[in-house]
Amino acid sequence: MKKQLDKTSIKILELLTKNAKITNSDIAKEIGLVPSAVLERVRKLEKNGVINGYTALLNKEVFKLNLLAFVHIAVDVPNWDDEIAKNLVKVPWVQEIHEITGEESYLLKICTQGPVHLSNVLKNYIAKVKGVKYTKTTIVLKSLKETTNFPLEIPPIKK
Questions:
Q1: Bridge partners of 97?
Q2: I need a labelling partner for 147 at 20 to 30 A (CA). Which of 15, 54, 60, 125 fits?
Q3: How much is the CA Rg of the chain, to the nearest whole Å?
Q4: Low-confidence ranges of the chain (pLDDT < 70)
Q5: Across the strands, what pairs with 51?
Q6: d(CA 108, CA 115)
Q7: pLDDT value of residue 140
Q8: Which of 146, 140, 132 is nearest to 72 (CA)?
Q9: What is the 3-state secondary structure (H, E, C) of 16-40?
Q10: Could you please report the per-residue DSSP string of 45-74?
């Protein structure tokens, strides 16, 4: 169910998505409310499931995770088995798993230390999951945009 959000709540969410550590006082100054009103609104957004949590965005290079790849996975099980997904979730280098349409059934986002490490993950983790028929891997050369944000209001369509 889509929750109706007023302009003030949307502005609070925009500020929090840019900086989750922003204080209620700073939000209040930015939008013209008192800090207690901001706190009340944020708590309501959390309670209603609009805000699911807060996270730190880590620099992958510090951990020598310099290779980003997307892996398409085809399965040989006629009706997909939840066991495949449950086993893929356990692979520590997998950041995202998506069920997709087309020849393959899953799309994974994997972050590894390099080509040799990626090969190891594919051979010793992904390929060993029962039901995986084959994989197709695309290695990212350069990321032009990475974000966890999305438009909170539908932007007008350019003509």
A1: 108
A2: 125
A3: 20
A4: 1-3, 78-80
A5: none
A6: 16
A7: 97
A8: 132
A9: HHHCCCCCHHHHHHHHCCCHHHHHH
A10: HHHTTS---------GGGGT--EEEEEEEE
pTM: 0.81
Fold of 7-47: Arc Repressor Mutant, subunit A (1.10.10)
Distance CA 123, CA 107 (A): 17
Q: At which residue do the structure tokens 């290695």 appear?
A: 139
Distance CA 69, CA 71 (A): 6
Q: Looking at the chain, which residues constitute the CATH 3.30.70.920 domain(s)?
A: 60-139
Residue type, 93: W
Confidence at residue 79, expressed as pLDDT on a 0 to 100 scale: 62
CA 109 to chain CA centroid, Å, is 10
Tell me the CATH class for 60-139: alpha beta
Query: What does DSSP assign to residue 137?
Result: E
- Within the chain, all domains assigned CATH 1.10.10.10 are found at 7-47
Half-sphere exposure of 35 (CA within 13 A, CB side): 5
